[in-house]
Amino acid sequence: MPSAYITRMIVIVMIVMPSMLLADIYRWTDDDGIVSYSQTAPTDRPSETVETPPPPPLDDNAVREIRQLIQSQRDSSESRQQQREQQQQALQQRQQRDENCQIARENRQLFLDNPNRRFMDSDGNFQRFSEEQRQQRLDELQQQIDTICQP
User: pTM for the whole thing?
Assistant: First the structure.
């Protein structure tokens, strides 16, 4: 089971980490006079253990400032994410509008290119448009284009 494996790894890390953090630091000088530091003492020369001081305590103002910075970063990140989502949505809407505009223009052009076009009425019979009906249909198609293709 992966969850049992992950749990075991977390427990092992929690056990090992404190000992790594509390490891001694050794200081020694080599033959050329260069001072070196390491977590393991050299075997061929004397070394001294370096005492590391504890970190200074944080005052309440520092903690408050850190929390405010973290919150402002979260807010900023959320704001940027919302802005990216809005931009993506606007782009998709613009692409859909452009596609619908192109379809409306093509439909009008097809109607113009075929003046003797027939249509099926509600009874299932095919009829031709009268000139008045044709002009009315062209006006409707142009209104669709004007509505859909607005910038």
Answer: 0.48
